[in-house]
Amino acid sequence: MNMQHLPRSLSFAACTAALLALASARAAAQDARPIAFTNARLLTMAGEPIEGGTLVVRNGKIEAIGKDAVVPAGARVIDCTDMTIMPGLVSAVSSAGLTQPPSRRTQPTQQRGRRSMPMPMPGGGGGAQDKAATRVVDGIYAKQPVFGDLLRAGVTTLALTPPGSAFPGLGAILNPDGKSLDELTEQAEGFVQIGMSIDAQTKKLLKGNFDAAAKVLEARKKPPEPKPEEKKPEEAKPEAKKEEPKPEEKKGETPPQPQPTPTPDPKPEPKPEPKQDPKPAQPQQPAAQRRPEPPKNPNIEVLADLLEGKRRAMLEISSAAEMLHWQQVFETTPKFQRTLVVQSYNTQQGTIDEVLEQAKSFECAVLLPPTLSTTPRSRMLTHPAKALHDAGIEIGFLLGSNDATVKQTFFRLMELVRTGLPSDVALRGVTLVPAKALGVQERTGSLEVGKDADLLVFHGDPLTPSSELHAVWRRGQKVPEKP
Amino acid sequence: MRMPSIVSFALLATVLLADLPAQRGRRGQRPPQQPEQAAPAPEAKKEESKKPKAYLAVVGADVYLGTGQRMTGATVLVADDKIESVGQNLELPEGTTVIDAKGKIVSPGFICVLGNGMGAPRSAPFADGVNPFDPEIKQGLAAGITAFMAGSPGGGSSPSGSNAVIKLAYGDVKGMVLEENTVVAMNVPLSLADREKLEQAVKQAREYIEAVDNFPKTKAADPNAKEPPMPRGGETMVAILRGEKKLWINLSGGGFNPFGGRRTGAASDLPAIREALEISKLLGQGVVLQKPTSAWLAPDEIAATGSMVVISPRDRLPADPKDPDRTGSNIASTALLAAAGVPVAVTCPGGMFGGTGVGTGGILGQDLNTPHVDAAFAVRGGLDNRKALRTLTLDAARILGVDARIGSLEAGKDADILILDGDPLHYATFVETAIVNGKVVYEKAKEPLFRHISR
After folding, report:
1. What is the pTM of this model?
2. Would you call A328 and B171 a contact, using CB atoms and an 8 Å cutoff?
């Protein structure tokens, strides 16, 4: 995290220089000089690829796209012959910044030979949790290099997933180029994380809390006769409102965010976060709401919002066995906006393609690891992604939580394509589908007029082994190389 | 579904004729049954009106019923998850899925009284922890296992235990737990104090049961009478006396010897067997003796109490050289017990790594999941081949207290059926198809386990 080992004065000078450069870059972006990428192969994700097309970006937005889009006068022209442009990657599931990826890298060097590999615990390792209202972003340290690494690897929109089963909290949507917590946070309450796991406690929590939330929702729908009750819905709404106009608000917010200076070093919050969070976060809300007589359970309120359609959920069901247990908990799964997440293929509990019908009944997209799987205890390969796609389920892919996994993703997608998955499905699976999962598809996820100019510029086709990520553009600005 | 009476009469006749040898073998045991007559007519019709049943028929095989009987060229008709009927020339309802099993052997699924793994969690709550896609399930099915008891039968100085009878219903969470806590177990020998406590508990439980039985009368006489209170901590004993739970008695003194040693010291556990039989007499009902090595010395004593036995025919205990006729194990143990009329269930030997149950984990997993080979050892010891099948089917189900549901191919029971390519207890026999709860859950030709081996 330290800037190398420069002498202080030097680093100070470097900082000021960098700041100046940044300021001028921002000024340059905000001046209305458009940028035109010409002669590019454009993978729009919204239709057929455009060969030799032009993409015009103004004020961080895509202004025009097409084979014969006009290059505006005074535009900065970037010739992209032999290059392919696709939308920036959207990582809808990640624990970047929550866990320390360096630990994995340092482990082998620290102790060679017998090292204990961290065994992934079923259900995310957090165990059954009942803190749906806890925001995962409150427990994160913003100045971690992993975010910048991810951005340079092509991830222009990043989700932060709270770990654990049942209700581990509210996931966030991040701007991976944010330098402070406020800059980093695009939506603090991006989605409700729900995790299935085969244990009695998780099942009990799922059932109990959804039932309670249904009751709260019923109470909300009733005409508000008693006045104390009227107050609560209002209190609940502001939170929800924040989310509905997400895209616009966020855009409005980002510029006037120089304020974040008050957010001092977030050091008090760093690692013990997962455990400490729930307590600080929970008492706050009830304290505000305790004035009316019956105290509300913020965890249930969040679920009620979900059932009401004000929030969306990431529903982690990683194996066929978990799917069947889920269906044992809910004969009919409650209706809410959701995306299924399969964290990894677990052949010991059956892969998701063994329960296609059940997966289909969720009527939502499924995010999968970008790999093939095997039949249990064998090397016979299976292709769950293709099986799901063939069954008519929209599929997306997980990009992992650090730049190394993101870089691997394209090679993995190549294998999936080589084994029968259509390439457009593979690429949509890392852009538009996860963008929909996070509810940011109005802003990013494809190359369409009006959307943010989140672009990846490749030499050659991204799904060929020889291609190379040439540049990442985020909201119309080129992401600088690693300093 | 109703058969023409002529057909059913013919059926009955064939069963009676065809099974003469079987009946000879079963002399002195339960009266012969005509399973195909006991059609569950009323219930079946009710369900029928609700929703059409899915029928599955296994046609043309030699059918071992699990009761000791065998029917040649018979059909097993399954409706949804239950057996509808078994017999020759059955009339199949429209839309029946037919599995041709001519030249094959059909048997009830094997039941292992002690087991682990195979999709079952290690401890309660079982229903919330089963993994219906565990690849071990397929391994178990390949060995013919369709049900086993997971968890601990229990132990200690008073009856206890937390266990469940798990079915290998691949891909079906609900179908996997047949029943929880049908078995409790305790250890012998007991100290005098524990013995005293046990007697006390039995007495209290008896008084309670009597009071409950008389309660309607008492209530009639005195409307203010209160329901008799359950003796504190007495639920288990009451359940045992009511026949709701089977009491197992561990003769090895429980405990786990990590070095896999035999019971050291005595080369005979006859005193422990007798103590267990004393408990049986105290209860006034049979118990289950778990692994009585010296049972071959007292089969009639065991039979007289109505007790049952769990045994491993492969277990060996060297005899005391000073008294070789009255000590050590005996391969004829199972045969002698069966001849005395004691129901026996076979399990595998306790070993250094394998534990005492059938499972697929551990170093010996592949070896231990072959219960039919264990039963074959009993055959080698003189047990009738067909009776030996009972040690894996109906008698095993009785010992687990679930014989109303599984253990034999009879109308109304769960459709847990094996189609085998040879005699059930032959070492070279493979399971070709396994059906659990009426669903085909294993096909040798489709699973990577044994499909490369053909005979």
Report:
1. 0.79
2. no
